Amino acid sequence: MGTAFVSAFFFHGLHETVHQTAFRSKWANIAVAHVLGFLCLRPARHYWYYHLDHHRYTGNPERDSELQSGSFLDLAIDGPVQYLFYLSGIPFWIDAVCSLIRHAFGYCTESYLCYKMRACRQVSREARIYLCLYVWIAVLALKYTIVATTLLRNWVWPALLAQPILRFYLLAEHRGRKQSTLVYENTRTTYTNWFLRRLAWCMPYHMEHHAWPSVPFYKLKDANHLLVQAAHEASAERGYDVLEQGEAYPELKESSRLGYIGFNLRFWKHLRPDRGVRKGLGR
């Protein structure tokens, strides 16, 4: 279980290297991004294009890649059943496998790819390489028992168990915030303990990350201090908390200070048949 918990945050390493802020060397970022992308079943170049539109158009339901309808990855949650289904990681695996196969055959239908021929070629080539490597590993596993045992113990089972942990974490980043183009309304910073912040590459400071995407992970805490200071000054001037006005539902007020367990408990409590918290997360 410990391996699964740690591997859940491989994704954050992928995210940071895609931003080119993990290492000084561009090629080190690219190499590590592909290693982690391969382990997470998130091809690095595809994720770069997906994530670029998420940053460019955060909160815009027509352009934000995490708000596009029909995506299993960014599933709408309208009740407890959808919430549990999302946390299971099943939608992620369906989307990841189907996307990899589609891209390998040259079908790039996503809004952030379909009108970009160069991007489509890059993503298709990447998918073919990844798919060939996955098939080669699968053949080795079928041929050699020791390979199969090692893969299941150290990669497959931890990856399956990691997804619910990762989904539980990712839910807090945008879900329940307003579909607005203002960063303090569409993104949430979640305050948590030192260990989880380090494990997640300081991404709990998510509002700060969206405000300044080129700031490396180890400077986000400093960015948080600047943002909070500016927000307090603006709140005093306007007479309300500008960082809390982005919560779309009263039940989620001050949820950023409850940590991830506290947020999910409030989110679960909010899920009633007559009130669905619509989309706003992804990855």
UniProtKB/TrEMBL annotation:
Domain Fatty acid desaturase intervals: 7-234
Superkingdom per UniProt: Eukaryota
CC annotations in GO: membrane
Pfam families documented for this protein: FA_desaturase (PF00487)
GO biological process, one term: ceramide biosynthetic process
Signal peptide: none
Keywords attached to this entry: Membrane, Transmembrane, Transmembrane helix
Chain segments annotated as transmembrane: 83-108, 129-149, 155-172
Gene Ontology terms for molecular function: sphingolipid delta-4 desaturase activity
Coiled coil: none
PANTHER family: SPHINGOLIPID DELTA 4 DESATURASE/C-4 HYDROXYLASE PROTEIN DES2, SPHINGOLIPID DELTA(4)-DESATURASE DES1
Protein's UniProt name: Fatty acid desaturase domain-containing protein
Organism: Symbiodinium pilosum
Biological classification of the source: Eukaryota, Sar, Alveolata, Dinophyceae, Suessiales
